[in-house]
Amino acid sequence: MSPSSPAGSSSSSLSVDYTNVLLALPDGSIPSNHADAKSYTISSIGGYPTFPPLPNIPKEINCGICHQPIPLLTQVYCPLENGENDRVLYVFACARLKCQKRDGSVRAFRASKRNEEYVKDVEEKRKIAEAAAEAEREKARKNPFTLSSDAQPNGALFGSSQPLFGAATSSSPNPFASSAPVPAPQQSSSEAIPDVSKLSLSDAPSTSTTLGPPIPAYQPAQYLSTIEEYIPPAEDVDFESDSEIDGDEDMKATMLDDTWERMLPKHLDEVFQQFVRKLESSDGGQKQVLRYEFDGIPVPYSSASPITRKLFPGCEKPLKKDEELDLNELYRGKSSLNGIIPPCTLCGGERTFELQLVPYLISLLTPNTLSTTGEAADDKKKKQTEAERKKELEELAKKIKEGKRDDEVNEMEWGTIMVFACKRDCIGLTEEYVGVEWESSITI
Ligand SMILES: [Zn+2]
Ligand SMILES: [Zn+2]
Known about the structure:
Blueprint: E1 18-29, E2 44-45, E3 50-51, E4 72-77, E5 85-93, E6 106-114, H1 116-142, E7 209-210, E8 217-218, E9 222-230, H2 249-254, H3 258-261, H4 270-281, E10 290-292, H5 306-311, H6 327-330, E11 351-357, H7 360-364, E12 370-371, H8 379-382, H9 386-401, E13 414-422, E14 428-438
Antiparallel strand pairs: 1-9, 1-10, 2-4, 2-9, 3-7, 4-5, 5-6, 6-14, 8-12, 10-11, 11-13, 13-14
Bound molecules: zinc ion (ZN) (2 copies).
Residues 344, 346-347, 349, 422, 424, 426 line the site of one zinc ion.
């Protein structure tokens, strides 16, 4: 699962066109009886979540609106670079119509557990760095013109903008691949769900826990593999400039790929256009379902949504002629998201942006792949034609209008789901902050 290089580029190390973002793409289904289906070190979409041995593992995750168990969208194994923990993020969303577009129907959790192998690794790197720093000081003492050793602090292992080690490498680490030694997760059957009421904080289960039927799940679960994001230079991108199509909404629509067509609102806003371009122009990344960059900058979906206006204040203002919208410049979280994103509920520390889900995921996790048996849903239903599907949705819409069947599950209707998680990677299982941009919010 090494990050792939774009075709024709042999030396990727210094290309400015690579961003620091890792894109996750679906990579084949995980058989439900395979050990990977019950591992917390595997990144996947759909299926059931597996939690590492930690106290207070829930029996199910419930919707904040209807309080029913909700399916997993993704489990992402993402230990931090130079961190000491296994770190897993989970995102769940209610598929019921009545809960769509309501806060509380999408929830994210983080499980962080100390990994002795990583601890050893960090300790070794620290020793090497200390030895190097000592050698530097020795050199400095011999050279009266250099600064004193006091000017070279070497105490802060993490948290400085220039980490002591882990300096610019040719490629960013892949948090999804478990290249570092990871102890084989112990398996447990879904029947072995601990009784939460009997657990105390010091009372962690000795094995991992995989949730199971009758909780709904998108089946089959699918592996995620990652590539580094590569945006080819602008002149290679097949987009017409705005000036050529100014004022012609229809032409704007036709220049975009079919994938996006059904999502296009009447009035395109610049934020949405940038979102689409970023995803569409990514080399080999058109099928990205998830974007990962710890402490990075999310790509907002719409200037109309409250979370975007908080994170990128001013992004909704009309642009002057020849003015470009620079979202990175507007981003409030460059140093801290204090006051915008609430702190970690476990340790009180700051949260930062970590990952976001993008709409291609919706086309993979469709209502007809939802199952409560642990197996893939009926194949016959899966092969529904587009016309049949449309008819079914129309019938459903009619019933909803009449106030019936609002318990029905439906296709998800978000534009992006952003997850903000604890910067300190504190140990335990906790709910993290989600910022959801709903699909309708782009119609202004
Ligand atoms: Zn719900
Ligand atoms: Zn924390």
